[in-house]
Amino acid sequence: MTVYGDVLDGNTKELLSSIPIILSYSSVQNGVYSSGYSLLAKGSTNESGNYRLDFERSSVVDYLMEVNAPEYFLYQEKVDRDEWSPKEENRYDIELYLATNLRLHIVNRTSASNTLTLDMGDHSPNCPSCCPQEKLYFSGLVDTILDCKIYGNQIVPYTANVINSLNSSDVSGEINLNNQVVEYEIFF
User: Fold this and answer.
1) Beta-carbon neighbour count of residue 104 at 10 Å?
2) 41, 84, 99, 141: which could form a disulfide with 90 (CB 3.0–4.6 Å)?
3) Strand segments (E) across the chain
């Protein structure tokens, strides 16, 4: 049986070379389903970002495709055994998403009566560990750092509402996640 395809950056659509790929399977042996996975085939992408895995199909319940590439989120996807035909070559493309470490530094050193509401705009759909989707509230004298592993190669909008004893103001901005580590400061 053969599975082949491309591995590409999910945002830029650039084909990625030298990316390791592991295909595992869970099986039924003596009528008992195994919830663990055993190695079936492994390989890596060529200089053009293509891969090809050849293997023998056995008593498979399902497959697990895994790609663990530096600088990208871990990719693990279960594939139903009926999705791939043993009589033909099966195409399976994989999109990886760059993992950026966003470090937000929130600071208020001016007035204990200041309050900040921070709303991070839409970003990172299905992100396994991204910044909170709800609003963040800070009040009083604050000097804190929030670390968030987030999808890279994107621009994340935010809105900050600052309330002090005299008035309220909204500030909007964007955080460009074009590096592996991005540090961003918000003063209120």
Assistant:
1) 20
2) 84
3) 2-9, 20-29, 32-33, 38-44, 50-54, 60-67, 75-80, 89-91, 94-96, 99-108, 115-120, 136-139, 142-151, 154-163, 168-177, 181-187
**Span 158-169, pLDDT tens digits:** 999 999 888 999
Q: What is the DSSP letter of 81?
A: G
Instruction: Say how many C-beta atoms besides its own lie within 10 A of residue 64's C-beta.
Output: 17
Rg (CA), the chain: 23
| Gap between the terminal Cα atoms of the chain | 60
Beta bridge partners of 71: none
Q: Which residues contact 29 (CB under 8 A, 6 or more apart)?
A: 59
Residues recorded for the chain: 188
Q: Which residue has the tokens 């991070």?
A: 120
CA distance linking residue 128 with residue 151, whole number of Å: 9
